[in-house]
Amino acid sequence: MQTSLPSRLALACVALTLAACAQTPGNRQADEPPQLSKRGDIIAWNNASAFGPVPSHLASTGALRCAALDTDKVKYRPLGYHSAARGLDGLPLPGGGYYCVPRD
């Protein structure tokens, strides 16, 4: 089964969350956007602190993208957003990127 772009982006967000827990989104999105990078088998954001808060008008979209990662035991939510987040190819991702974390 092929996954959609939003699902792959959300997966990348979680990979970063697991790989770089010390970084968290900031209080505004950075001028330099985060970019997906590949480290071994993990695709992750290169800079979680580049994300800003999720705008209220994008909260439901972010929730849907992050929910694509849900398992029976772990449910995810968007913690950050960047409108110009870049993919592995360095190009801006349509609709931006979300930084997903496990719900409390």
UniProtKB/TrEMBL annotation:
Keywords: Signal. It comes from the Bacteria. Residues 1-22 form the signal peptide. This is Lipoprotein.
